[in-house]
Design brief:
alpha/beta, 15 strands, globular, 13 helices, seven-stranded mixed sheet, binds ligand T4K
Length: 370
């Protein structure tokens, strides 16, 4: 009996490695506000992600809020996005005084249905904010064409795609900006943390000041910023975890393959596939359950696994347009694929060190209900 298997488990370096990394902070007493670790981590990340510019932030959500704020969109402007995502994506738009316009997703990979975007563009549309959900990369070529045609910005929610590439392009190079999350539950973590990669140096300068209250220098405050700086302890965790990230992803690949081998022949379960042109990070293992064909519902599978001490999550249910705080504001029937997927999806335990025997056990519990 394997108790307390959770949907994920944070990756951590050896304690001694982290202690070594932070020990100099006891000499300098410099703990935050863009210190030595922050700068060292920033340049390591830039190289690893192969992006021209990057800014570090306190978490992925603030990265998203500031990536939008730095665009200076007029209040009430519309941003086309999807409701099949974590709360952060929609909240970041709304908290910037902007209006989310929900586009449906594709059943194939749960990313924005690029063929529906043009129908949603109005004279108030200023940006597209697609989500590379579960690490599935959006149709970036088509999205770029549309954005160019209508003069829109593209900000990718790349929270799930640390270290991924598509067509040999680092995912952080797509669009005008991409935001990453380094939360404890992510493939790569800095405990809490986030980043924005971007093309235009001026745009990065805005984010740099916005994350520090809009302070340009000791006497000039020219932005209504917040406090969203990554501190030295988080940056040090990032430096350590980055040394091991390739091994972590390689281990995740084995877990992904084991799940795939065990579950791919079961009728009524749709698994997430990875296209040949994508280097994946294997962030999540979602299954979408067709109860008519499989014989039990997503919730029944979840309960059965829970009875056996296995934790799963319904990422992403409810979809954002169904949240209590947005109820009666958006019409979820306009995004039927997102609504349906949210009702049927279950993400299974996925982390680098999960025992392969546990993966087999999870699969056999799922299969028994078949
Ligand atoms: N955009 C997207 C598409 C996102 O998915 C997210 C975050 C963001 C933006 C915003 O990025 P951040 O501001 O968070 O950097 C988790 C994460 O908190 C959140 O980062 C993530 N997406 C979301 C998909 O999942 P919860 O509420 O499910 O987390 P929680 O606390 O239930 O943890 C899940 C499991 O992780 C636990 O069962 C055990 C394990 N865990 C958790 C923590 C906190 C650990 O092993 N260690 C830990 O420290 O939201």
């Amino acid at each position: 009996m394997n108790d307390n298997i959770l949907v994920t488990r944070s990756s951590m370096p050896e304690l001694t490695e982290y202690v070594d990394e932070i020990s100099e902070l006891w000499e300098t007493h410099w703990l935050t506000n863009m210190g030595v670790k922050h700068e060292q981590f920033r340049s390591m990340l830039k190289e690893y992600l192969n992006v021209p510019q990057i800014e570090l932030l306190t978490n992925g959500h603030m990265a998203l809020e500031m990536a939008l704020q730095a665009c200076n969109f007029e209040e009430g402007s519309e941003v086309i996005t999807t409701p099949f995502t974590f709360a952060s994506t929609t909240h970041a738009i709304v908290r910037n005084g902007l209006v989310p316009v929900f586009c449906d997703i594709k059943y194939t990979d749960y990313t924005i249905d690029e063929e529906q975007i043009e129908n949603l563009i109005t004279d108030r549309t200023v940006a597209i904010l697609p989500v590379h959900v579960y690490g599935n990369i959006c149709n970036y070529r088509r999205i770029s064409e549309i954005a160019e045609k209508y003069g829109l910005k593209i900000i990718y929610d790349a929270a799930h795609t640390f270290g991924e590439s598509v067509d040999s392009i680092g995912v952080g190079n797509l669009g005008d900006a991409s935001i990453f999350s380094f939360h404890a539950t992510k493939v790569f973590n800095t405990i809490e943390g986030g980043a924005v990669s971007y093309k235009e140096p001026e745009y990065g300068q805005k984010i740099y000041t916005l994350k520090n209250f809009g302070i340009r220098d000791e006497e000039i405050v020219d932005g209504i910023g917040a406090n969203a700086k990554m501190n030295e302890f988080c940056a040090a965790m990032g430096i350590c975890n980055l040394r091991h990230i390739d091994d972590e992803i390689a281990k995740r690949k084995l877990v992904y393959e084991r799940y795939f081998d065990n579950l791919s022949d079961i009728p009524g379960l749709k698994l997430n596939t990875i296209p040949d042109n994508v280097r994946s990070n294997y962030a999540y293992f979602p299954i979408v359950v067709d109860p008519e064909v499989f014989g039990s519902t997503r919730d029944e599978i979840k309960d059965r696994l829970a009875d056996n001490g296995i934790g799963t999550r319904k990422y992403f249910y409810p979809i954002a347009s169904e949240f209590d705080c947005y109820k009666n504001v958006y019409d979820s029937s306009k995004t039927p694929v997102a609504l349906d997927t949210g009702n049927k999806v279950l993400t299974l335990p996925m982390y680098a060190d999960i025992d392969i025997d546990i993966v087999d056990r999870i699969c056999s519990i799922i299969r028994k209900g078949n």
